[in-house]
Structure formats: structure tokens, C-alpha cells
Write a structure and sequence with these properties.
The protein is of the alpha/beta class. The protein has one domain (2-273): Rossmann fold (3-Layer(aba) Sandwich), CATH 3.40.50. It is 42% helix and 20% strand. The protein is built from eleven helices and nine strands. It has helices at residues 2-9, 19-31, 35-51, 69-76, 92-103, 143-153, 167-177, 188-197, 214-218, 226-232, 241-254, and strands spanning 56-61, 83-88, 110-115, 128-134, 154-164, 201-207, 210-212, 262-264, 267-273. It has a seven-stranded mixed β-sheet, sandwiched between helices. α6 links the parallel β4 (128-134) and β5. α1 packs antiparallel against α11, α2 packs across α10 (226-232) and α3 packs parallel to α4 (69-76). The longest helix is centred in the first third of the chain and has 17 residues, at 35-51.
Length: 275
């Protein structure tokens, strides 16, 4: 990492990901990881028992196309329980995907509202039972203010859930190479620290996963590499040969010993209950 930092210091910033390429590279990145499938299983299994019986109001922040939210919504809206599910997503095309995906669920107990905008601007009509952030806290301008905004939306006993990657081994690359973060990339350690400072009942679980970078590690320099682009948050085709060499060395050394090419891709799921 020290050698990579030195190489980056002597090079120009990489181009930002466009909206279209962001979506394309994100899809490729998710396909190379088994993390999403694990979240699709974990959330609907673990969260419903924590929320008790009765009607529910859920707010999902940064819901993307709803592929993680749909299994959770279906699990919550069972046994005739009424569920109001609000999905907040700033990318309009992804927000449309969320609305279509959750709208297609075969349940008469689910009411879906889609907000194509920023979480900071959202003011709920009533208190929520659950507010969750799945891979969406990284880029908030002010992590503390965002968490306070979410906590203020929750009823007493409500849950705030964050699914956020730890800084190592991959987020450190985004923090180093992305041209558009604009502040420290908020990772799982930062979320835990902020919630602990608020003296909430907090517990967490680390979900292990792997990101298959086998093709990336052997691809020629300058080729279209959407997985690598999303990983670092930038277009990597213009990366200098020196930076790429050090990046590949870092990723190769970070790979699982028993499965070369697969880099650990953990996610920390943190749950806080409002008093």
C-alpha cells in the first residue's frame, strides 16, 4: 500500500464514472461477488424477528434497483401484516427499477413509495420501525448528521441498520483512487464509532464474502475493466502503468491464500435500537 500511495502521488487523478458506466460497472462488480446473495438471505431471515408483530413502516436509503429490498419486503409482509415500504434512491433509473421490482411482489399487504432524491431532503410523514442503509453511507457528506436524521425518524424501539464494508482491504482503494468522494470515505468503523457515541444499544455481525478478481488481475492494461472501475470509483483505463502495477500487486497479496484471485469482501452489519 505504501508503494501504491507513492505511485498515485505522482500521477493525475482518474476520470470519474459517468452515470451510465457507473450502473454498468456496478452490475459487473456485484456479479463478481457473492455478497449480495448473502444479504438477500440474511436480511429477511434476521430482521423480521427483531421487529415484532403489527404493521410496519420501513425506510430504505440508497435502495438501488431493489434487489436487496425485495426479499426483505416480502418477508415482512407475511401473515397479513401491513407494511409501508419507502425506498429512497438518488439515481432515477435505479429508483424506477426499485419501484417495478417491489411493485411486482405478490402480496396485498405491501404499500411501496419511491423517492427519487437525496436522503437529506426527505421528511417522513410518520415514525418508522426500521431505517436501513445497505452500502449507502459511504458517500454521505456528514455521517453524523445523516445518522441523526435517520434516528429522528424512528419510533421508540425502532431499528437503524447499516450494512457497510470495513476500510480494509478494499475500501482503502476507493478512498485513495476515487476522484469524487470529496471527504473521508465512511466505512464500518466510522459508523460503529458514531453510534457508540450516541450511547445506543448496538450489536453487529461480520458477513464474510469474496470478490472474484481473477480476470482483472490478468487483463492487459487499458482494457475495459468494469469490476476494477467500480472498485476504485473511477475509469481505470487511463491509469499509469506504475499505478496499475502496484494496484495489482496489492490485490494479489490481499487474495485468499486458498483461492488466488478472490479477495475478501466482508460487510459489517450494524444494528442500533432507539430507546
Amino acid at each position: 500500500m505504501h508503494q501504491l500511495r507513492q505511485a498515485v502521488a505522482g500521477s493525475s487523478a482518474l476520470p470519474d464514472l459517468s452515470g451510465v458506466h457507473y450502473a454498468y460497472s456496478h452490475a459487473a462488480y456485484e456479479a463478481a461477488s457473492d455478497q449480495r446473495a448473502s444479504l438477500q438471505t440474511w436480511l429477511p431471515r434476521e430482521l423480521p424477528p427483531l421487529l415484532g408483530a403489527g404493521p410496519l413502516r420501513v425506510i430504505g436509503v440508497g435502495v438501488g434497483d431493489g434487489s436487496v429490498d425485495a426479499p426483505l419486503a416480502a418477508a415482512l409482509a407475511t401473515n397479513h401484516r401491513q407494511v409501508e415500504y419507502v425506498g429512497i434512491e438518488p439515481h432515477a433509473a435505479s429508483a424506477a427499477g426499485f419501484e417495478a421490482r417491489l411493485g411486482s411482489l405478490d402480496t396485498g399487504c405491501l404499500t411501496v413509495t419511491t423517492v427519487a432524491g437525496a436522503f437529506d431532503d426527505y421528511e417522513p410523514a410518520g415514525s418508522a420501525d426500521l431505517v436501513h442503509f445497505v452500502h449507502s453511507l459511504y458517500y454521505m457528506n456528514d455521517l453524523g448528521a445523516t445518522l441523526d436524521h435517520a434516528l429522528a425518524m424512528l419510533r421508540p424501539g425502532g431499528l437503524l441498520v447499516s450494512a457497510t464494508a470495513p476500510r480494509e482491504p478494499l475500501c482503502v482503494l476507493t478512498e485513495l483512487l476515487s476522484p469524487c468522494v470529496g471527504h473521508r470515505l465512511w466505512c464500518a468503523e466510522d459508523v460503529t464509532e458514531e453510534l457508540a457515541a450516541r450511547r445506543l444499544e448496538v450489536w453487529s455481525e461480520t458477513m464474510l464474502a469474496g470478490l472474484d478478481l481473477g480476470d482483472v488481475l490478468t487483463a492487459p492494461h487499458g482494457t475495459d475493466e468494469p469490476v476494477l472501475d467500480f472498485l476504485v470509483g473511477a475509469r481505470t483505463a487511463t491509469m499509469t502503468a506504475e499505478v496499475r502495477e502496484q494496484l495489482i500487486v496489492y490485490l494479489t497479496e490481499a487474495a485468499v491464500f486458498s483461492n488466488p484471485g478472490v479477495v475478501p469482501h466482508p460487510i459489517e452489519i450494524t444494528i442500533a435500537r432507539v430507546p
